[in-house]
Amino acid sequence: MSGFSSLFEFEQELADFAGSPYAVVTDCCTHAIELCLRYQTPSHCEFTAYTYLSVPMTVRNLGIDYKLTPETWTGEYQLHGTTIWDSARRLERGMYRAGQMQCVSFGVSKPLHLGRGGAVLLDDVDAYETLSRWRSDGRDLRVSPWQNQPQFTQGWHYCPTLELCEQGTDRLKYFTGAVTHHTYPDCRKLIIL
Predict the structure, then answer these.
(1) What is the signed CA dihedral for 186, 188, 189, 193, rounded to 10 degrees?
(2) I want to staple 6 with a disulfide (CB 3.0 to 4.6 A). Which of 33, 54, 64, 165 is the partner?
C-alpha cells in the first residue's frame, strides 16, 4: 500500500458518514465540481445565481453553456441538466442521494471546517476510479512509487494534503452533521470578462 492510507481512510469515513458507497476527496469543492462536470460532459446546465463565483467561472471555463436562475436554496443545490449537486453547505449523516454526485466543502464556514478541501460523494465505481485518478495527476495512488504505474490518464493536481485527510478523519469522529447558511450575491449582476 502506498503512503496515502490517511486519504483512503478519510474517504471511507466520509462515505460511511454520508451514506455513499464512495467518496473522492479533493483540494477544494470547486475542483470536485469541475471533475464531475468533466466526467459528465454536459453541453448545457442551469443552476442558481446565488452561489459562489467559482461555480459559474468553472462552468464557463469548461465551455459549457449555462443559465443562472433565481432559485433559492439551503445547504445544497443541483446543477440541473446533470446529476451534480453543490452540497458545500451541507454535511449530514445519510445525506447521499443514490445515482448523484454530491460535492461537499471543508472550507471556511462550512459544516466540517478544515480550512480547505472538498469531496465528491458518489455510487458509480467507474466514476469513482476515474475521478480518483483525475484528481491525482492521472495516478493510481495505490501504486508506489508512482513511477511503477505503467500508464497514466489525463489528470489534474487536485489532491488534498495528507494532513487535511488526517484532520478530517479525526473531526468526523465527533461530527454530528450540519447545514450552514450564507447569503451569496446574485451572480447575474456580476461581470465576468
Answers:
(1) 130
(2) 165
Peptide bond between residue 145 and the one before it cis (omega within 30 degrees of 0): yes
| Parallel/antiparallel/unpaired status of strands 118-122 and 101-105 | antiparallel
pLDDT in tens, 95-106: 999 999 999 999
Letter for the amino acid at 144?
S
Domain ranges of the chain: 5-189
| Location of C-alpha cell 459528465 | 40
* Distance, CA of 67 to CA of 116 (rounded, Å): 28
Domain range 5-189, CATH class: alpha beta
Contact (CB, 8 A) for 55 and 180: no
User: Which of 126, 81, 121 minimizes the C-alpha distance to 97?
Assistant: 121
How does pLDDT run across 42-61, given as a tens digit for each residue? 999 999 999 999 999 999 99
Cell numbers given for 62: 469548461
CA distance 79 to 94: 21
Spatial separation of the C-alpha atoms in residues 188 and 56, rounded to whole Å: 10
